[in-house]
TrEMBL record:
One of its GO terms (cellular component) is cytoplasm. It comes from Staphylococcus edaphicus. This is Arginase. The keyword Cytoplasm does not apply. One of its GO terms (biological process) is urea cycle. NCBIfam families: rocF_arginase. It comes from the Bacteria. The keyword Ubl conjugation does not apply.
Length: 301
């Protein structure tokens, strides 16, 4: 990679109900992400955190009707879309640090306008494919990928004044092990390429990643990686808000990211859902930084 890696922090906690994930970008910085990437020989521009709405604790802790913190997420998404789009216009590689996974609405909105057919690898325990009427919680961090595909609240769908940002046939889900009924139905109806943990166990991560890259490279002109740390087993990454047992191992994830690096196909990335308030000694942020190192080409020898 000969681009400058631009780090953009999106410290949003509005997409779910646990405080602390808004501290994720700074926890990842504290774990040494800038130094880790620079040690590989790449240039880094840390653009700091985008300025988000204040957290109103009374509202945040209340039982809201409909979509939780919708107005705040719309504002966050527009700001982040603009920042990420500017990064690409400056020929940088945008690396967005969350924050909860609702920030992908903004980051991918900023990326997709620069590509005719953007591909998305959603590395996560969850599909994040809910719509408001089917969501069991109203938490928007369970909806971003469906919003980006053009379904959901119109104000979210039309962030940056265009939709959809990604076609279902250009999505690959990896690490799935917790899907709601509506998400399962949507995946089947749209034939979204999906690797549950059963497939990872059956085929191995090498085959999963080879098939993913073969599937996307012929039909897309850019690939965005959205990596939620809860894709990994919570034994590996305890500091995240929606932990699901039976996830990917740390070693499998390193190998997956090494393969993505070697493909030279990924053009932007999110790293989300690190919550230092429920972590142990910032372990999850440190694990996340290690994964980023593999993604950018770090090797032992």
């Amino acid at each position: 990679m000969n681009k400058i890696v631009e780090i953009i922090g999106a410290p949003s906690t509005f997409g779910q109900r646990k405080l602390g994930v808004n501290l994720g970008p700074d926890a990842i910085r504290y774990a040494g992400i800038v130094e880790r990437i620079e040690a590989i020989g790449l240039s880094v521009k840390d653009s700091g955190n985008i300025k988000l709405p204040e957290i109103d604790l009374k509202k945040f802790n209340s039982e809201q009707q409909g979509l939780r913190n919708l107005e705040e997420i719309i504002e966050t998404s527009e700001l982040l879309s603009h920042a990420v789009s500017n990064s690409i216009e400056n020929n940088h590689f945008p690396l967005t640090l969350g924050g909860d996974h609702s920030i992908a609405i903004g980051s991918i909105s900023g990326v997709s306008k620069h590509y005719e057919n953007l591909g998305v690898i959603w590395y996560d325990a969850h599909g994040d494919l809910n719509v408001p009427e089917e969501s069991p919680s109203g938490n928007i961090h369970g909806m971003p990928l469906r919003v980006l595909a053009g379904d959901g609240d119109e104000r979210l769908v039309n962030i940056s004044n265009y939709a959809p940002k990604v076609k279902p046939e250009h999505i690959v889900l990896i690490g799935m092990r917790d899907l709601d009924e509506g998400e399962r139905r949507y995946i089947k109806e749209h034939n979204i390429k999906t690797y549950t943990m059963a497939e990872v166990d059956r085929f191995g991560i090498k085959q999963v990643m080879e098939e993913t890259l073969d599937y996307l490279k012929e039909k897309t002109d850019g690939i965005h990686l959205s990596l939620d740390v809860d894709a990994l087993d919570p034994i590996e990454t305890p500091g995240t808000g929606t932990r699901v047992l039976g996830g990917l191992t740390y070693r499998e994830s390193h190998f997956a990211l090494e393969m993505l690096h070697n493909s030279n196909l990924v053009t932007s990335m999110d790293l989300v859902e690190v919550n230092p308030l429920i972590d142990h000694n910032n372990d999850t942020a440190e694990q996340a930084v290690g994964l980023v190192g593999s993604f950018f080409g770090e090797t032992l020898l």
